[in-house]
């Protein structure tokens, strides 16, 4: 890939990394903190051991659901990017024109940078 096209792909990767870091710091860590604080309260229960285990499981459910939903959405996003690149590879196989392939991949990257920007608010919601 040429430098311009490679930059678009690198920009998409950097944007995705930034979203993941922001999710970790602004969403997942606060949820983890809440789950740990909830878990501490479970250890104070005076009932049977099973009651404490049920309480602990319940404390971890919200973050597990949210992480699963976010990871599912990100996997689907990555699959869409991969399909776009695969279409570029399919087109390139018939033309053998590296320049067209590079341009196609760059267009995929630019398109999905915009898609990620619109997906980010949805990912950042606390569920």
Largest sheet: none
Number of DSSP helical runs: 3
Unreliable stretches (pLDDT < 50, length at least 5) are: none
End-to-end Cα distance:
40 Å
Description:
Helix 1 packs antiparallel against helix 2 (49-95), helix 1 runs parallel beside helix 3 and helix 2 (49-95) runs antiparallel to helix 3 (98-124). The two termini are 40 Å apart. The longest helix has 47 residues, at 49-95. The mean pLDDT is 89. This protein is 91% helix and 0% strand. It is built from 3 helices and no strands. The chain has one domain. The chain has 127 residues and is mainly alpha-helical. It has helices at residues 3-43, 49-95, 98-124. It comes from Micromonas commoda (strain RCC299 / NOUM17 / CCMP2709) (Picoplanktonic green alga). It holds the Pfam family DUF842. This is Protein FAM136A. Belongs to the FAM136 family.
Pick out its properties.
127 residues; mainly alpha; 91% helix; Protein FAM136A; DUF842_euk
Describe the structure concisely:
The chain is an all-alpha fold.
SSE blueprint:
Layout: H1 3-43, H2 49-95, H3 98-124
Helix pairs in contact: 1-2, 1-3, 2-3
């Amino acid at each position: 890939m040429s430098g311009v096209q490679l930059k678009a792909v690198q920009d998409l990767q950097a944007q995705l990394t930034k979203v993941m870091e922001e999710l970790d710091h602004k969403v997942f860590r606060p949820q983890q903190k809440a789950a740990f604080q909830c878990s501490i309260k479970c250890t104070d229960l005076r009932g049977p051991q099973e009651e404490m285990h049920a309480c602990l499981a319940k404390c971890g459910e919200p973050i597990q659901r949210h992480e699963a939903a976010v990871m599912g959405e990100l996997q689907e996003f990555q699959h869409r990017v991969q399909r776009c690149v695969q279409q570029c590879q399919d087109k390139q196989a018939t033309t053998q024109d590296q320049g067209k392939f590079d341009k196609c991949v760059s267009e995929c990257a630019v398109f999905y940078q915009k898609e990620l920007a619109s997906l980010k608010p949805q990912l950042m919601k606390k569920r």
